[in-house]
Design brief:
This protein is α/β, with parallel strands linked by helices. It has a single domain, classed as Rossmann fold (3-Layer(aba) Sandwich). The N and C termini lie far apart (64 Å). The model has no long low-confidence stretch (mean pLDDT 88).
Amino acid sequence: PTECFLSQPEEKQESTVKAKKRKKKKISDILQKSAPKPGVPADLQNLLSQYFGESRSVIEKEELKLPDSCFLPANDLTHSFSSYLKEICPKWAKLRKNHKEKKSVVMLVICSSALRSLELIKSVTAFKGDCRVLKLFAKHIKIKEQMNMLEKGVFHIGIGTPGRVKALVEQDGLCLSSTKYVILDWNWRDQKLRRMMDIPEIKKETIDLLEMSIIKLCREGSVKLGLF
């Protein structure tokens, strides 16, 4: 009887573990089979209102709302990164030529990781023409190096993670007054099928960055926001 009694919890534990394994597999199966749905401005609006929930007053929430006029056409998942940028910014050659300011970029691209930033830097070649692109992520690059580069040279495109971009803005290493376009790498999924806004830390840093300065600039009309 004792042996019987001892073996029962073990069997239960085993079946629970198996059930958990099965459940995990099922979720990833669903994600793999579900057709990708391109992000639209309403997705970002909903995300912001959910994120701030009850923690902000009605007036504060109103100030965080982005009118439709703030948004560029969203990627319908048929574009490469370069072809998307060509569509939303047909006058890039002129903007690039006229940009002379240091400590700033004309276009800022926010994505979820350093590796993804490098991918986008490679894939922007067909669009960028004769312009300089700056890596804005933390991996293997000190913030002081980036601040020195921004102070000494003229850069047209900055591609990086929200955490490092936010730190550069806070430390006055990067000024957004000359920025015309902010692109969020919205639709791309990592190996675990997570988009940038599915990763809690990246989501928080992106929303902090938006709240800190980008939403205000969008509402003033100086910055346009795109979801790639």
